[in-house]
Write a structure and sequence with these properties.
By secondary structure, this protein is of the alpha/beta class. It has helices spanning 2-27, 31-47, 51-71, 106-120, 122-127, 146-157, 166-169, 176-190, 201-204, 214-229, 248-251, 265-275, 287-293, 298-314, 322-343, and strands at 90-93, 135-139, 161-164, 194-197, 235-240, 256-259. The protein folds into 3 domains: 2-71; 84-259, Rossmann fold; 265-343, Orthogonal Bundle (Helicase, Ruva Protein, domain 3), CATH 1.10.8.60. The chain is elongated, with a radius of gyration of 27 Å. Helix 12 (265-275) runs parallel beside helix 14 (298-314), helix 13 (287-293) packs parallel to helix 15 (322-343) and helix 14 (298-314) runs antiparallel to helix 15 (322-343). The longest helix is centred in the N-terminal third of the chain and has 26 residues, at 2-27. Strands 1-3-4-5-2-6 form a 6-stranded mixed sheet, covered by helices on one side.
């Protein structure tokens, strides 16, 4: 009888520890640990001869996993703040931007919509052994919408945007950058999101350049290996203004290479209408503004429009003064020409 009591007491204590561990893993949002402990409890019940209860527990666990997997591609991913050293490598936000907030050329919009379509059917594609597009290289001049694209993809998919801080990632110490890069890709696997590598040429410059050093080659080789091995559900986006210096091996690692350019006349007009919405008279011709904006980037035009709208608001005007906006655009043209002369 005493032995039976001790055995019963030990079993009760074991169950108590498992329950506490189960609640702790739930509170810490440690999903793998939560399922592991739940399966241990089911196995324990099976050993105790409670076969029916054990099967019910396993069924509930499998059902929960299936529901979580099915909702994975469409549900909003909770905003997880990077912790420890990772907090210095990634900045995180939850963008509200959408592709509809951007003016894109057909050659940019079409592949982005394809990415979104495949991502929204992620579970279905995975169940057939297929892999949705999720590794993108965006190339083009500064201010043409590459950074905004990363935010819009996150907004469309309702997942966090993680921006990789290259200033913290790249160090002069041998092997340290590769170790930090591994932490970033561990996060890519652990938390679904859009992971954005801006100024990607800092990592991906050609091996063998005259100013190349051994550590840069090691960083590139590490990135090539990690992105090739990455089989997560996250979206990896890299952007560069200088595709000509990227190593050729990089281009094969991305599902799509999307080229950005200064907006065409049609895109400038669409951008003016979009950004001036509510501050533009329907009878006004935009021809002079389109001409004044030729050659400017999306960002330069958008900034000029924002400045003109602020002027209207501060002076209690219901519409933007077009001569003010034209002057702002011409000023940016002057700045652009001066910058171009310095680089030639």
């Amino acid at each position: 009888m005493a032995a039976l009591f001790v055995s019963h007491n030990a079993t009760t204590m074991a169950k108590s520890e498992q329950l506490k561990a189960l609640l702790r893993s739930y509170a810490e949002d440690d999903e793998p640990q939560f399922y592991a402990i739940a399966m241990q409890m089911a196995a324990h019940e099976a050993r105790q001869g409670h076969g029916k209860l054990a099967e019910e527990l396993k069924g509930l666990i499998d059902s929960a996993k299936t529901r979580r997997s099915g909702a994975h591609a469409s549900a909003v991913v909770p905003l997880a703040r990077p912790k420890g050293e990772l907090a210095g490598l990634l900045t995180v936000s939850y963008p509200s931007k959408l592709l509809a907030d951007m003016v894109l050329s057909p050659t940019v919009e079409a592949p982005l919509n394809r990415v979104l379509k495949e991502q929204r059917h992620l579970v279905k594609l995975r169940s057939h052994g297929l892999y949705p597009r999720r590794k993108l290289l965006l190339v083009g001049p500064s201010g043409t919408g590459k950074t905004l694209t990363a935010a819009a993809l996150a907004g469309e998919l309702r997942i966090p945007l993680f921006v990789v801080r290259l200033d913290a990632l790249i160090t002069k110490f041998m092997g340290e950058t590769a170790a930090k890069l591994r932490q970033v890709f561990d996060a890519v696997s652990a938390t679904r999101g859009v992971y954005f590598f801006d100024e990607f040429d800092a990592i991906g410059s050609q091996r063998g350049l005259s100013n190349d050093v051994g550590e840069i080659r090691r960083i590139l080789n590490s990135f090539l290996l990690m992105i090739e091995q990455d089989d997560s559900d996250s979206v990896v986006v890299a952007a560069t203004n200088h595709p000509e210096i990227l190593d050729e091996a990089l281009f094969r690692r991305f599902d799509d290479v999307i080229e950005y350019h200064a907006p065409s006349e049609e895109e400038i007009e669409a951008l003016l209408k979009l950004r001036l919405s509510g501050f533009l008279s329907s009878t006004i011709s935009l021809r002079k503004l389109v001409d004044a904006a030729q050659g400017l980037s999306h960002a330069q035009i958008s900034n000029a429009i924002d400045d003109a709208v602020k002027e209207a608001v501060m002076h209690d005007r219901e519409t933007v003064q077009l001569d003010t906006l034209q002057s702002l655009l011409e000023h940016r043209q002057t700045v652009r020409r001066r910058a171009s002369m310095k680089t030639t």
